[in-house]
Specification:
single chain; 4-stranded mixed β-sheet; 13 strands
Length: 199
């Protein structure tokens, strides 16, 4: 069963609908104990990094996520859900993240391109990534003004470019995440979600 984490800020319904379309029965959950005991987790997110970390902490979901990951539960972060996995973000000042992936989140160095980055953008996937199985230089839907930079490039499942090259997806052990929205990215996005479901 796929548990979609509800902490008061996330695109829950579209993610749950995409999972349901693939034949799974998602459950939307806010209870920390049930999150910690889940079989598979999806961490969606929209909004500001610091505020979302406060919401996670207020519900005990931050420690529940860490506990689940520590016991081997597959976790998929989406959009801000990817950024929250990192050590920190400088969005509206310094904010500490979950620290599950080494690195930080900074404002996109867009080089004069419009922000936020709202576009279908091609990615450069890692050939060794389980999450990216069957995915080449496909286009995915991005909406963000801040981007992550993995400290260990081995954690990068894909990169993308918008003014600068940034971490578009991560994969390390049972931790997976995408900066883009797979649930809004057509057949390629469904393929990626299917890859996660089938882990």
């Amino acid at each position: 069963m796929i548990t979609v984490i509800d902490y008061g800020a996330g695109n829950l319904r579209s993610v749950a609908n995409a999972v349901r379309f693939l034949g799974e029965t998602p459950v939307i959950e806010s209870d920390a104990d049930k999150i910690a005991a889940a079989d598979k987790l999806i961490l969606p997110g929209v909004g500001a990094f610091g505020e979302c970390m406060k919401l996670l902490g207020a519900r005990g979901a931050d420690e529940a996520i860490k506990s689940a990951v520590a016991r081997g539960t597959p976790l998929l972060g989406i959009c801000l859900g990817l950024q929250l996995l990192f050590d920190s973000s400088d969005e509206f000042g310094f904010n500490k993240g979950l620290g599950l992936i080494r690195g930080k989140v900074t404002k996109i160095k867009s080089g004069g391109l419009n922000l936020p980055h709202i576009a279908w953008t091609s990615i450069e996937p890692s050939s060794e990534s389980r999450l990216m199985r069957g995915i080449k230089n496909d286009y995915f839907y991005f909406v963000h003004s801040y981007c992550a930079h993995a400290e260990d490039k081995r954690d990068e499942a894909a990169t993308a470019e918008y003014g600068e090259t940034f971490t578009a997806a991560v994969e390390r052990d049972n931790i997976f995440a995408t900066q883009f929205h797979p649930e809004k990215s057509g057949e390629s996005g469904l393929r990626l979600l299917r890859n996660f479901i089938e882990l």
